[in-house]
Amino acid sequence: MTRAPRFTGVRWLVEALRPRSNPLRRRLDRVAASLTALFLVIAVFGVPGAWWLGTDVHARAETTAAAVAARGHWVQAQVATPPELRTSGSGPEVQAVTWWARAAWTGADGRPHAGDVQVDRRIQVGGPLRVWVSAAEQVASPPDSEAKMVTAAAGVAALALGGLLITCALLIVVTRAVASALAERAWQREWEIVEPRWNRSDH
Q1: Would you kindly state where each structural domain of the chain is located, as residue ranges?
Q2: Between vectors from CA 72 to CA 133 and to CA 68, what angle results, nearest 5°?
Q3: Rounded mean pLDDT of the chain?
Q4: Which InterPro entries does the entry link to (predicted)?
Q5: Does position 22 have pLDDT exceeding 80, yes or no?
Q6: H-helix or E-strand spanning residue 175
Q7: DSSP conformation class of 22
């Protein structure tokens, strides 16, 4: 008696999906092959989907950066105080270590302004420093650079595509495992019926 089919390989997939496939193939073969093909198609279409997602994330980042740029500008400032160490969290829960200093500049209104900015710890008092400020001459976060936006968009796209591919691969493995288990059980039931008759015919 033929053993239960193995639900693996490209040859099995093609044979099971053919309109006039092997008559020994069961409905289970076609269902398992159809699900496997579906997951493969989803994985393939995930590539342009990830590209579209990355493009959309980049476009949104550009819109945000343009809005930030419209509300502020760069000024040429000077470091007014030595860099000061700051941490977030305490003890073993310290999450970040940054250096800050007081920067001073002359605003568009001609008046002096100052504010705390994040700096390199090696910077010297009196050194030049570019600072992004709002229309009110307050220190603010600058718009993201093109490199940062591209990196972020590529990261989102890669993460989404990787997750999709892993999910599809796991679903294919599960589909094959379940189909193989069901086929094996069906084979065992049929063998329990055929074996006694087979043994009697040998005597």
Answers
A1: 28-62+149-202, 72-139
A2: 115
A3: 83
A4: MT1774/Rv1733c-like
A5: no
A6: helix 146-202
A7: -
pLDDT value, residue 109: 84
What does the alpha-carbon distance between residue 188 and residue 4 come to, in Å, rounded to a whole number? 9
Q: Which residue has the tokens 């829960």?
A: 93
Per-residue tokens: 16: 């099971």
CA–CA distances in Å: residue 148 to residues 61, 144, 156, 157: 10, 6, 12, 14
Question: Cα–Cα distance between 144 and 152 in angstroms, integer?
Answer: 10
Answer whether residue 137 shows pLDDT above 70: yes
Q: CA dist 38 to 5, 42, 83, Å?
A: 20, 6, 58
d(CA 66, CA 149): 12
Ordered DSSP codes for 96-121: EEEEEEEEEEE-TTS-EEEEEEEE-T
Q: What is the pLDDT of residues 184-193, one digit of tens each?
A: 776 666 655 6
